[in-house]
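[agent] plan:
  1. take the single chain provided in the ticket
  2. run structure prediction with default settings
  3. attach structure tokens to the ticket
  4. add a short note for the reviewer (M.T.)
[agent] executing step 1
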Amino acid sequence: MTKYQIVGIGNAIVDVIGRCDDAFLARMGIEKGVMQLIETERAEYLYDQMPERRQMPGGSVANTVAGLSALGLSTAFIGRVSDDALGRYYAEGMHAVGTEFVNPPRAGALPSSRSMIFVTPDGERSMNTYLGISTDLDEADVPAAVAGQAQILFLEGYLYDKPKGKAAFEAAAQAARAGGGKAGITLSDPFCVDRHREDFRGLVRSLDFVIGNEHEWRSLYQTDDLGAALEQAAAESGLIVCTRSGHDVVMVEGNDTVTVPVTRVDPVDTTGAGDQFAAGFLYGLATDRPLAVAGRMGCIAAAEVIGHYGARPEADVATLFAAEGLI
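[agent] step 2 finished; step 3 output follows
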């Protein structure tokens, strides 16, 4: 019996967002436009240096799940936070958007995770992430009663860095499929793909759908030819989705290829663009829309979130769907 239309598993990270210029990035030694993992001391230093900072619950799949909850779907999120100020803030924030936060804050030596996101005037975001306790998520954090009642289970590539995280993924996917659901993953970042290429290739073959951007797909198959990478992925997976930073989205399922045009907009902040694309796309998937419609929904949701600061929608995305006759 399906209780949740979407269940997500991922890093539970508090996003701390601040605006800056390129000179600030250079002074701080921050590589522009990428996600870098940092340790505690560096995290505390950058937090203190952040201009105009504001915080909100984040994490890639958590942002997607929050977007789906805002669209009216029944959702749950599996992630680990500490019983500290940031962890309690995170759990309360997920509940506030209508998502069941499955794992209560827990006592532990590691603090809750946070990501310092520096946004330059061109809308590009540079992320410096301290993973803290979130990467300790393991199989015991995945209740079969939750994963097993998911219509769609969505996994985060960022979390696929420790053996116990892999075990948690496998247990969740098995439970979801045993309950009649589908399971898929977001590749998350080229550095994730580079670190776990063979495992990710196995996931492409074993899961029902995989979402990635052009850089991640090229990295996965170690080629500069995106077409060749997608052709190989399509031969191995049920459904693949490729976003291309303002260019047409490509989706392949079996022998069918669907291309969805993207309306280019000037970004204010690109944080969460991929997360909200996934939210729109998975909304279409969960409500049995054709692939072309699901892809268009993803593009609309992504365009909304890059129009303001923060990784979660501010407008009523369902109204935007309705304006285009999609619902």
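[agent] step 4 note for reviewer: The longest helix spans residues 163-178.
[agent] ticket updated
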